[in-house]
Amino acid sequence: MSVGLVLVAHSARLAEGLAELAGQMAPDVTVLPAGGLPGGGLGTDYDSVVAAVQRADSGAGVVLLYDLGSAQMTAELAVESLPEEGTAVVADAPFVEGTVAAAVAAQGGADRDRVLEAAAAAGAPADLGPAPAEPDDRETRQVELTLRNEVGLHARPAALLARGVADLDAQVRVRAGGEEVDAHSVLALMSLGARQGDRIEVLAAGRQAQEALDRISSLVERDFDE
C-alpha cells in the first residue's frame, strides 16, 4: 500500500504523459491523470479530479499536483469535498519535478507527509535533494563504477538507484564530474549528467553502508536492467 498521486492539468495529454513518465520510475505507485475537460477541451474538471482521488486512494492517502493556478483551485476544491478530512493534500510544487520526486518517494514507502515534502523540495531552485551529511571519513566506504548503460544516470536509472537505497540505514552520496549529491534524490542524481562511459564514485557510511554499495554496484553491473 503506497501513497497515490493525482495529476491535475489543463491538458489531458500533459497529465497522461507525466503519469506515464512517473509510472516508469515508480511502477508500484498509482499515478492517475486528471487533465482536460470531459469533451476533450482544455481546462480542469472538478468531478474528474474527485473521481481520480477516490481511485488513487489505497488507504495511505493521496497527493495532488497541478500545472497552473486554476488547476490548483480545482484540486483544492476536490480535496475539501472529500468525506474524510486528511485523505488527500495538494502539493505546492513544480508539476514535472514535483511529480517525479513524489512518485519515487512513494515507491520507497514514504508516508503521505514525506511524499508531500519530497514534492515541495523539488521546487527550490538550488535544492536538488538534502545536503549530503558528512560522516566520519574513517567510517566511509566507497566504490568507483563505470556506467555502461545507454542513457547513463538519467530518469529511470536514477530512480532505480534512489529506490535501491531508500530503505537502508546508510548515508549514501554519488560523485561525478566534480559534483557530489545525495543518492536518495532522483533529481539530484539526474543533475550530475553522468553518461554512458562516465565513472561515478559512490560513498556510503552507516550501519548498512556495504549493503548500499553492493546494491548500487549490482545495478550498474546489470546496466540498470535496460
UniProtKB/TrEMBL annotation:
Domain named PTS EIIA type-4: residues: 2-127
Protein name: Phosphocarrier protein HPr
PANTHER family (alphabetical): PEP-DEPENDENT DIHYDROXYACETONE KINASE, PHOSPHORYL DONOR SUBUNIT DHAM
Annotated InterPro entries: DhaM (IPR039643), DhaM_N (IPR012844), HPr-like (IPR000032), HPr-like_sf (IPR035895), PTS_EIIA_man-typ (IPR004701), PTS_EIIA_man-typ_sf (IPR036662), PTS_HPr_His_P_site (IPR001020)
Family matches, as Pfam families: EIIA-man (PF03610), PTS-HPr (PF00381)
Gene Ontology BP term (one): phosphoenolpyruvate-dependent sugar phosphotransferase system
GO cellular component: membrane
A GO molecular-function descriptor: phosphoenolpyruvate-glycerone phosphotransferase activity
EC number(s) given by UniProt: 2.7.1.121
SUPFAM superfamilies referenced in this protein's UniProt entry, alphabetically: HPr-like, PTS system fructose IIA component-like
UniProt entry keywords in alphabetical sequence: Transferase
UniProt domain HPr: residue ranges: 138-226
Record field: catalytic activity: dihydroxyacetone + phosphoenolpyruvate = dihydroxyacetone phosphate + pyruvate
Subunit structure: Homodimer. The dihydroxyacetone kinase complex is composed of a homodimer of DhaM, a homodimer of DhaK and the subunit DhaL.
Domain of life: Bacteria
Function noted in UniProt: Component of the dihydroxyacetone kinase complex, which is responsible for the phosphoenolpyruvate (PEP)-dependent phosphorylation of dihydroxyacetone. DhaM serves as the phosphoryl donor. Is phosphorylated by phosphoenolpyruvate in an EI- and HPr-dependent reaction, and a phosphorelay system on histidine residues finally leads to phosphoryl transfer to DhaL and dihydroxyacetone. General (non sugar-specific) component of the phosphoenolpyruvate-dependent sugar phosphotransferase system (sugar PTS). This major carbohydrate active-transport system catalyzes the phosphorylation of incoming sugar substrates concomitantly with their translocation across the cell membrane. The phosphoryl group from phosphoenolpyruvate (PEP) is transferred to the phosphoryl carrier protein HPr by enzyme I. Phospho-HPr then transfers it to the PTS EIIA domain.
CDD domains: PTS-HPr_like
